[in-house]
């Protein structure tokens, strides 16, 4: 089960079981083994068609702040956006369990449409199937996001020592909300942050090469996203615990449920790696675009490749690992 | 004098032990000359010394040789009789033989002769704080590379003055070939600095520092292998201020006393030989009521004390009224102990720094030893002991082990030797992990080890494991995973030379073969493999690390499974920072939480249920305070809780709580729980016909040990390595025995 958690296990699974099977894994752009959010196909003039696919299951399908439809549409479009691509089109495949209320399905479709319409994204095609009761859990939605990007693509290997790491706002809201629901907690103050984040990427595209990489901290949260940047770019990353925006209740609930707060998913925030010379301007641009709580949370350093180090409030340097599926205490 | 008509005899002697870097060869030469013998002495490979003596009084020579005082330590002496070859005189020959692996000598406390010199107004080394000789002073902490010659140490920048030069080259002098030799004229200097690092101009920095300490200032003091923080131990105000500045609310501080007599004013039952030894460890001993501030070691019965082990420490304490002080390592939160001025100044805790300019090359923290049963056990094996190699009974491949994660120690192996690093610290902190890597690589290079294997713990999240995998890839070594408690049991077996044993492995956390968190195990091991024979009944660790920090969560899990939670729900809610809400959440997450058989965590839960400790502010705190509370307690019952291969800790705790409700004294209940746990673990292995060992961080628990001893006549704790995770790397390496 852990191989679907989006953490270390997912990555191992892809490397061991999927990569070796396919002869052709890229078409000259970003491909399967790059393990980026989306794949790209060069289409000339320094442009790329960017495609991303993801399937969404969430229990429960409706949650404060959104539903599975909004999540599925935003998710794939966000994956395209963090490659630097303007989202252009969407395709979907929906599987519902027999007996799933039609009214709910309508609401879900509405939410998907809302996301697409707000961004002038076309729905190019789709497929809906019904499966016998008990063979799936309520509803599964797969979406393909399609966009067009001009070079440079915002891949994770572009981070260099000295670059700053910026986050658009408080992290972990989506993960905390779903977690609370799964434990049957009624927490009025928690709400998923699911939303499209293209506007944030767009706001920074004007900095050209000085915007290096972008990433949405979805599954595995900030911890996973930062580890991926560190690994792919061959650098280490230092983040300041104090600087990471996180709502108090998100932190409290995560801690009480025994979950690393920094491993909680966000579905409506982005992380950017930027050249230090544009740090202030970038923050300003994000704020102007409505990302008022955008902050610098750390920086890329040379040295030990693949390590993310958290500078704690008391000044210690804790190593922030990639989250793994299960909870394992380390304290002896 | 009677005419001696005896025959000339010749002996070829091979000596093993701590005989290199401790002035052994000059001692041998002096003895040989004393008895008019011819021959030679030389270092040979494997860290041994070869001696050839011939003449009449060879027996006398041999007797004296065996009696050479510490730090020399003769572990093995092979004597072969030969026929004389006609050596006229006795010589120290250059090192010979292939391999040339000579041991990196550890650091030693100042010896009596050197101490006398600095106190003697007629000596040219009067008040020289960094005095040392061939028998004492820093070694490992100042070696940049082997061989151990002056130009390879941090004494290289201090050329000898003519007088030191004369001592260095005269075989009759006790400083003959002493690499650390120096004096007031040619040696490093002592300076007093303010909190900005600026030199405070005073006639005598040490006298001034003593005065400041006396007045209640906090001082950083550069010692042998790192900086300490010194503070007046009798003043609540000063101790609390130190706690505040260091952000260390409760963890005990160690003390340093001028000498044995002074130490006896602070603690009882202190072993004089161990205290005064060249290793000069911190020894935990029962404190004397009221001798120091309650805040030095709040809640503890045992308190750590060591002697003034350098001239600098001695001269400082000598000039204070009390003649003792807090002497705790100056380590910024989550970082290793400071070894340079910059680190101490950045830490911003000390008002003044008593500094010297001899560079510290290897950080070496103080060793810590306590008594369990009738033997002394290491809590930390570092200064004075590390990096002495540990010889085992088997040949080992060249390999490297990264240990576990907390209070970690790494090791390398070759021939029949394991070289364990000094105490490293918690390698979940980056700088400690880098420290481990640096030391391991240094030993690999110094001993020319080409590791065929890199041994790591099974825990998927240990950073040491990640380091191990990186090193293995780089060096082309095979990675070997060893289960944590298997390694614990192996470490004792390696120490004793056992190839088969059953062991009780009890600690806080280790990753089990079934994905559960183990820590209360009975294990059969034949070094290479193991079998789990019994374990503590599983309970849940709701919230993982959070349950470790707030053990009330574990108590909830145990009582919930027993159906007895209601009676305790109020007090357990109170013991959680999130009160009722957290109590509810804990219950809700029980099913999705990992299983654990950890004895340490069970003791933590007991500690909370007895109202002793609610939150763990440092490693092992609730369990340690439980042990402290049981001081002077007695067993209220002695019952069998073994069910098949399970030791039912749940039922035991419940039974003990019933005694509490009936009005039993807390100290007796606390004692009873720990005693019965030991008793039940021992019951599991009572009938097995194999040597029995005990290991793991909780193995030093006295009431537990007494429970074990109630059943088993003979059970062994490790002597040369800590039973805790500081011994893991030894246990990891011996799985590779050939
Ligand atoms: Fe352990
Ligand atoms: Mg993504
Ligand atoms: Zn000496
Ligand atoms: Zn001199």
From TrEMBL, chain B:
Keywords: Hydrolase, Ligase, Metal-binding, Zinc, Zinc-finger. Residues 10-94 form the Acylphosphatase-like domain. One of its GO terms (molecular function) is zinc ion binding. The active site is at 25, 43. Pathway: Protein modification; [NiFe] hydrogenase maturation. InterPro entries: Acylphosphatase-like_dom, Acylphosphatase-like_dom_sf, Acylphosphatase_CS, Carbamoyltrans_HypF-like, Carbamoyltransferase_HypF, DHBP_synth_RibB-like_a/b_dom, HypF_C, HypF_C_2. It is an enzyme of class 6 (ligase). Its EC number is 6.2.-.-. It catalyses: C-terminal L-cysteinyl-[HypE protein] + carbamoyl phosphate + ATP + H2O = C-terminal S-carboxamide-L-cysteinyl-[HypE protein] + AMP + phosphate + diphosphate + H(+); an acyl phosphate + H2O = a carboxylate + phosphate + H(+). It comes from the Archaea. One of its GO terms (biological process) is protein maturation. The keyword Transcription does not apply. Residues 203-384 form the YrdC-like domain. NCBIfam families: hypF. Belongs to the carbamoyltransferase HypF family. This is Carbamoyltransferase. It comes from Ignicoccus islandicus DSM 13165.
